[in-house]
Specification:
four-stranded antiparallel sheet, single chain, 8 strands, rod-shaped
Length: 321
């Protein structure tokens, strides 16, 4: 089971105790994957279709708990993928359909279906707890989360821009940076920051999935930190080795051209020590001198030797036979 499926499974089993939150969650599912059918004699039917059994189970449970109404549930094979299944939950009774639509504020007092909800006016999502429930239902109906082992991406696809803007506003109300992008015929509300996806899981009240994502994030950050440290140490080692090789080349050139006797005593000492200890660090070289010298002092002497070698190369084409 994918991480996204595990999140939906957890959310499908979480039921708000308050009726108004149950209505808000049901409303989100209905507006994002539902249809209102009106017959020629103005009889209403309300149904949702989904490929996720957890979503169908949650919608069925919400209708039963909130309205105590019966529903027809059917399962059929997907048209494009024969291994997939389409779950349909239908409220076939006209009276029950009207009750559902009125509770969700999807029908006005004249019996006209209102396609889009208004953040400012709709009482279904006025309270914070109801906003949480609505976001939870929207994710169940049309959302997905990428595998956090690979990358971080949370999204909910909406059929219209108005619905996407409404959903974005709800998410923004919790201080999260949700954006909208048009993808084919859908308007997708998405979050890409790992820490913010953790926060949206908290908003939707999915503590188990939240902890799983946090554990993955911690491990990924630890691996990244270790890799950066290893890369940094490797770079430092390469830099140290390259510097030591250049120092030995310079010292060898001086020895093979004019000899160490032409050097001051302190440079003779460090030159001989570097040749005898090619793998030693500056600190180790300094500790091997008498009296001991700090890293900056050792580096200063080696720079002097390098400058002498460069001047000699202008006079001598290479080591003398």
């Amino acid at each position: 089971m994918s991480f996204s499926s595990r999140v939906k499974d957890e959310l499908s089993r979480q039921l708000s105790p308050a009726r108004h939150c149950q209505i808000a969650e049901m409303t989100a599912i209905l507006t994002l994957c539902g249809k209102v059918q009106i017959s020629q004699n103005d009889r209403y039917r309300v149904k949702i279709s989904t490929e996720n059994a957890a979503v169908a189970r949650k919608y069925f449970t919400l209708l039963k708990k909130t309205f105590n109404i019966g529903t027809d549930v059917s399962i059929r094979q997907g048209a494009e993928n024969h291994r997939s299944r389409i779950y349909t939950v239908c409220v076939c009774s006209h009276e029950d359909s009207i009750r559902v639509l009125q509770a969700a504020k999807l029908i006005d007092r004249y019996g006209q279906v209102e396609e889009n909800l208004s953040l400012a006016q709709n009482v279904v999502i006025m309270q914070n707890c109801c906003k949480r429930a609505f976001i939870r239902g929207a994710f169940l109906a049309a959302g997905s989360i990428s595998d956090p082992e690979r990358f971080y991406h949370f999204e909910i696809a909406c059929a219209s821009e108005a619905k996407a803007v409404q959903l974005q506003g709800l998410i923004l109300a919790f201080g999260l940076d949700a954006k909208i992008v048009k993808r084919k015929k859908y308007f997708v509300v998405y979050i890409k920051e790992g820490s913010q996806i953790v926060d949206i899981l908290n908003v939707m009240e999915a503590p188990v999935s939240l902890m799983e994502l946090e554990n993955i994030r911690i491990l990924k950050e630890m691996r990244g930190s270790v890799n950066r440290q290893v890369n940094c140490e490797t770079a430092n080692i390469n830099k140290t080795v390259s510097a030591a090789v250049k120092q030995i080349e310079d010292i060898t050139f001086i020895r093979d051209t004019v000899g160490f006797d032409t050097l001051p005593e302190n440079l003779q000492e460090i030159a001989g020590l570097r040749l005898s200890k090619p793998e030693a660090t500056l600190k180790e070289l300094g500790e091997g001198l008498e009296p001991p010298v700090g890293k900056s002092g050792v580096n200063h002497r080696l720079r002097k030797l390098s400058a002498i070698a460069e001047r000699l190369r202008e006079t001598y084409p290479g080591p003398q036979a």
